[in-house]
C-alpha cells in the first residue's frame, strides 16, 4: 500500500521540556490511521508539526517522499474550530476551496452535495454564527474535504456531536478511505476508533507506546476477559486458574484473564460449581488498554507491534 505521509524521528521541545521524542509512523493511501494518547501526550503537537503550524527540532516529515508538503493536497480539521462567524456557509466553503486552488464550479457542486448529505440543505446563505455547534462542525468538516485531499488530518472530529452526527461522520470517513484518501485521525471516542481504524499509533508522555495493525495490537496487548451473569462468590472466582482480577456488579462478574490464555481450553476447565445464566468471552477493549496506559496502571514497556 502506497505511503502518503511519513514521520521519522520527530522531536519537539518547549523551553526545557521535551513534548515529543523519536516519533515515527506513516499513513498509507486508503487507510484510517489513528493517533491516540492521554491529554498532554503530544498528539496535537505532532499534528501541528505535520501541518507546518510549528516546526520540529528533530526529524523529518515527508509527503509522498517529498519534504515540501503541498498544502492543497491536504485537508485539515483542527481541534480548535475557527470559521469566520459572520460569513455565509457557501461563501466560506468556496473561499476555502479557492485557497486550495480547487475549481470554483466543482467546489460549488461538491458543497451542495455535502450540505445535502449532512442535513444542511437550504443553509447555504445562513451565516456561521447562526448555526448550532453541531452544524458548524459539519460545515468545517465539509471545508476540510471539499478540495478532494489526498491526505486528511482530523483532530477530534467527533467532539460535540450527537450520536446520529457521529455515525454520519464515521460513515463518511470510511467512504473517503475506501476511495483512496489517506486519513490520520485523533480522537478520544475509543468505541468509534476501535470500529474504524486500520492501524493505530499510541503515544504517552511524548513517546511511542503502541504502533501497528489493529488486529495485531488487540492480539498482543488485549488479554481476554470473561463476563458471567449468575450469583457467584468473589473469592471463589479469584481462585480459578489464570484469573488476574475480578470485578463484580450485583450478579454480573467480569474475570480478567492472564496473558497467553487459550480461551477454549480455559472455558473447558471452569469449575462445575460455577453458576452461569449467561457467559461471554472476548478481548478487553481499546478503551481499557488506553485507560491502563493513561493511568500508568499497566504501562506497556515493549517497543510496540511491528509495522503491519
Write the layout of secondary structure elements.
Layout: E1 3-14, E2 17-28, E3 32-36, H1 43-51, E4 58-63, E5 74-77, H2 89-99, H3 104-117, H4 133-145, E6 151-155, H5 163-178, E7 182-186, H6 190-196, E8 199-204, E9 207-213, H7 214-221, E10 224-229, H8 234-238, E11 243-249, E12 252-257, H9 263-268, E13 278-283, H10 286-294
Parallel strand pairs: 3-7, 3-8, 5-6, 6-7
Antiparallel strand pairs: 1-2, 1-4, 8-9, 10-12, 10-13, 11-12
Describe this structure in words.
The protein has 308 residues and is an alpha/beta fold. Helix content is 32%, strand content 28%. It has 10 helices and 13 strands. A hairpin with a 2-residue loop joins strand 11 (243-249) and strand 12. Helix 2 (89-99) packs across helix 3 (104-117) and helix 2 runs parallel beside helix 4 (133-145). The chain is globular, with a radius of gyration of 23 Å.
Amino acid at each position: 500500500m502506497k505511503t502518503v505521509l511519513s514521520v521519522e524521528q520527530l522531536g519537539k521541545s518547549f523551553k526545557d521540556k521535551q513534548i515529543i521524542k523519536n516519533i515515527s509512523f506513516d499513513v498509507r493511501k486508503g487507510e484510517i490511521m489513528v493517533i491516540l494518547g492521554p491529554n498532554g501526550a503530544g498528539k496535537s503537537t505532532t499534528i501541528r508539526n505535520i501541518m507546518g503550524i510549528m516546526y520540529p527540532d528533530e526529524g523529518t516529515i515527508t509527503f509522498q517522499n517529498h519534504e515540501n508538503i503541498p498544502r492543497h493536497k491536504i485537508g485539515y480539521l483542527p481541534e480548535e474550530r475557527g470559521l469566520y462567524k459572520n460569513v455565509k456557509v457557501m461563501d466560506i466553503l468556496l473561499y476555502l476551496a479557492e485557497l486550495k486552488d480547487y475549481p470554483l464550479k466543482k467546489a460549488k457542486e461538491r458543497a451542495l452535495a455535502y450540505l445535502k448529505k449532512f442535513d444542511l440543505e437550504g443553509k447555504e446563505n445562513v451565516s456561521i454564527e447562526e448555526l448550532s455547534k453541531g452544524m458548524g462542525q459539519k460545515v468545517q468538516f465539509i471545508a476540510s474535504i471539499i478540495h478532494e485531499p489526498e491526505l486528511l488530518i482530523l483532530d477530534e472530529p467527533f467532539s460535540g456531536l450527537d450520536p446520529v452526527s457521529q455515525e454520519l461522520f464515521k460513515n463518511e470517513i470510511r467512504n473517503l478511505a475506501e476511495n483512496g484518501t489517506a486519513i490520520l485521525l485523533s480522537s478520544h471516542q475509543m468505541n468509534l476508533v476501535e470500529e474504524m481504524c486500520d492501524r493505530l499509533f499510541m503515544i504517552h508522555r511524548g513517546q511511542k507506546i503502541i504502533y501497528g495493525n489493529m488486529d495485531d495490537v488487540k492480539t498482543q496487548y488485549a488479554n481476554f476477559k470473561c463476563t458471567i451473569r449468575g450469583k457467584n462468590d468473589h473469592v471463589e472466582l479469584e481462585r480459578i486458574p489464570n484469573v488476574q482480577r475480578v470485578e463484580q456488579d450485583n450478579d454480573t462478574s467480569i474475570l480478567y484473564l492472564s496473558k497467553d490464555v487459550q480461551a477454549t481450553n480455559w472455558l473447558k476447565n471452569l469449575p462445575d460449581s460455577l453458576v452461569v445464566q449467561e457467559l461471554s468471552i472476548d478481548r478487553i477493549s481499546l478503551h481499557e488498554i488506553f485507560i491502563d496506559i493513561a493511568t500508568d496502571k499497566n504501562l506497556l514497556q515493549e517497543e510496540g507491534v511491528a509495522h503491519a
